[in-house]
Every structure is written in C-alpha cells, then in structure tokens.
Amino acid sequence: MNPPSGAAFPPVMNPPSGAAYPPVMNPPSGAAYPPVMNPPSGAAYPPVMNPPSGAAYFNQGYSQNPVYRNGPPSMSPPTGGRSPFKKPGRKRRFPIWARVLVAALALFIVISGSLYAYYQANYANSINNITGHQAVHHVNIETTDSHGNKQNQTTSNDILSGKRINILLLGSDNDGKGGNNGIGGSPLAQTDIVITIDPTTHYVGMLSIPRDLRVTIPGHGSGKMDFAFSYGFQLGGKDFTNSVTNGAGLAEDTIAYNFGIHIDYYAWVGLSGFVKVIDTAGGVDVDVIHPMVDDNYPDDVNKTGNTVYDYKRVYIAPGPQHLNGVQALEYVRTRHSDLVGDFGRSARQQQILSQLKTKLATPDTINKAPDLLKDLQDALKTDLTVSNMIAMGNFARSLDTNNIDRITLGPPTFASSIANTTDYAPICAPIRDQIAKMFDVQSKCIPQADASTGAAVAQVTNSQPNLALTTAPQAQASLATSLQAVTNETTERWQYVDPKEATHTILNLMLASVFGDITALE
C-alpha cells in the first residue's frame, strides 16, 4: 500500500533530548531460570493444527469468539416450561380430510333424517294401519293334524320355514249396505277362501266356502257363513280395526269348529278399497269378449238399495272398454253373465290382474304409492307383516299354477239346497274326505239341515261339546300368547322396508283377497 500522491509521511518521533532509556532488567543474582519441560520419553507431540487457508478460517471457528472446552452451552428451555425466547404459536387445526369427513357425516344425518320423516309421513303410518293386526278369538277350539298332533299358531317370523300354514282371505262390503257401514252396522263376508301351503312339498290348495253355506257359528247357532264375520265385527265396538280383528277371529273359529281347519293368518279386504285403488291408478283398459249382463249382481258397493241382500242389473258392452273402479269390480265379480261359467270369470280376473299390475308398474302410478296406501288404510287389514308377504310372493313365483288344487264347497258335490231358503246344506261325506286330503288334518263336518225338508238342526249353544268358551286361565294364556305375537310383529314392523316394494306387496295381497287367488301375490 503506497501513500497517495503528495501525501507527507508522518514525522519521525525521536526521544526527547537528554532522556535516558529504561535500564536493562537482568535477573537477580543467583536466580535460576525455570527448568525446561521436555515431554516424557516416548510421548508423541500433538499434531500441529494449522488453520484453514482463506476465508474458511473464520467460517470454521478460528475467530475471536470464546472457546469452550466441552462445546457451547445448551440453549434448550428448562424442563417443564416454555422457553422465554419462544413466541406462542397458532392453535393446530383439523386436517382437511377430517373436516370433509365431518361435513359429509352431518349431511348424511340430515338427509337420513329427512328421508325417515318422509317415510314415516307417507308410508309407515299407512303400512302400520294395514299390517300386524292380530285376530281376536273368543272361543278355544282345538284342531289336530292327520297324525293326531295339536295344531298351534305359527309364531316364526319366517312363515315358510317348514310348517304348513293356512291363510284365510276375507272379502266384504264396507260401504253402508242396509246400515252395515262398518260403524253402525256389520259388513257381511262375500268371500271366505282358505289357502293352505306346505313349503316342504310346495303343495298349495285353495278351499272356497260359499257365503250361503250354512254352518254353526260359535255362540250364535246355525247361520250362513257370511254372518260369521258380521257377528264378530259387532263385538269390536266403534273402533274399525278392532271390529275387523274380531270379525276375522270369529270367522277363523267358525271354520275350525265346522271343518277342523286351523287358521294361522288372515287378510281382510273391503271391496271399496279395490275400487279406490283402480280409480287412483286411473282405471284399466280391457277387451270385453262378449256382452256382460247380470240381473242378480249384489248391490253392495256405492249401493242404491236399502236391504242387506239388494241386487242390481249390470251391463258391460263388448269390445275395448276403459273401466273405472266400480266397473272393474263388477267385471271380475259377476257370476251370471259369462257363457263359460266360472272358467270365464277366472279369465276375467286374470285379465284385470294383468292390466292392473302393468298399470301399477308405470312411473306415474309408482309416484302415487303413498295415495294408494292411504286408499287401503280402512280397506285392508291383516296380521301378516310386509316381510311375510314378500316371502309369500317369492314362493308364489315358483309355483306351477296348473298344480294348485281348487275346491268350492258348493252344489252339487259338496252342498245341496235347503228347501224354502237361499241357503245350502253341506254334504259332509265328500267334504270330510276332501278337507283331510287337502289340509292333512283330522277333518270334520257339522250337518246343518235335511236337504229335502229344510228342517234346520238344533241351535248350538256355548256348552256344546268340543266348543268351549275361553275361561279365565285360558284367556290369560291366550292374552300372553297374543302379547308375545304382537311384540314380535311390532319389532318387525318398525324395521325399514323399501316403500315401493311394500306398496306392491300390499296391493298384491289386496288382489289375492279380491280374486281369491294366491297367484296374485306374484
């Protein structure tokens, strides 16, 4: 480094004149220098540590900073406390995936709650008003199978689990015929059909008991079969459902007492329900093969007469026809206007059944499912559950309809006219044989009158042998059994079922009851 041009060097500083230099300091006399410390013999000198060259000298610690023998002191905060130099951080947030999961769960709960509320409002109430209503029995009648074993009520939720079951299909007016409006009167059962199913062998039989067949009605003596439901209905008071369950119970008791057939389940349909369903669905289209004329059609729906047994004239023109509910019912029920008798009636029923099922499968009608169920709330009652009906529908689809046994206890084989009446008397010998074969039971038949003279048999009282009124202990046992059955049914009824499947299943049961045909359950 040369000084800048023109700059003068600082003057040479000489000691002041006359000043003496400091004296030379010699060691004291006799003092010895400290001994020279040589390393022990054989000890190696430590290696010479040369600092790194260049800027690395300062970067690697060879600076004027303090030197620590054991490294710099630790800067960790005291145990159990926060470092005074550390600022408090922000609260830790949930990860995004957790927030998304919580939001999705909340949305699912809201949607599920809405769907549940919709199901309860539009389906559940109607379904519960229709299903699970146990028949009420007032007498204790024992029946036995062909092996002498007592027949008991089926209690399994799987009704097709192996035991033979018998189901009573009841169809009646419920529109106020002759004061029999279901409130102040008592409807008559025009249809009493017992379906027997053996799940093991896939045997199915259908026994139709004519409404005019004279039978012994427990507690009421001899009368027409249609009055069994009517007498029981009167015991239910003004509660409609209770009246139906009492009517069904007495109808079951009458069948058990007269023919030895134990009934496991029942289904009752008011014919007005069929009319409402057809109208709600918008009617049905059929091709009428020939003119339908019936001057003896029972006037029991939207009636014009005032007595119990009013009749009216029915006429349906041939060709393509659009039928409303009343017309469709007349078309399938009329017995006196078909050129081929009951075969023609069965064909008409299948025709309406096919058209109605096609109509019920359309989107417009499916959307009316809540309305269809509401139509049936007071027109269809059963002790079956929806799952029972679904199981029966699946079973019906596996059947060969040509192998279903169908018997009607009417003239000339199974009944004969009673003089001076419109009643029929049972011909017991063939009835006992047929029932024993069809139901695998120890059948019986109660004679009612002499066909030639019309003389009625003696009135049957409650003290007649084989017919015991329910005593207190029996009533308690019956009540306990009924409560257990109701508990089982209630538990199942609260289970969620697909609304559309439930609607179709219930409609199929209605059709089976109206037509008296198990194949309607398919």
TrEMBL record:
Keywords, ordered alphabetically: Membrane, Transmembrane, Transmembrane helix
Annotated Cell envelope-related transcriptional attenuator domain residues: 190-360
Family matches, as InterPro entries: LytR/CpsA/Psr_CW_biosynth (IPR050922), LytR_CpsA_psr (IPR004474)
Region annotation (Disordered) ranges: 60-89
Domain of life, per lineage: Bacteria
UniProt entry tagged with the keyword Repeat: no
Transmembrane segments: 96-119
Family named by the database record: Belongs to the LytR/CpsA/Psr (LCP) family.
Protein's recorded name: Cell envelope-related transcriptional attenuator domain-containing protein
Taxon lineage: Bacteria, Bacillati, Chloroflexota, Ktedonobacteria, Ktedonobacterales
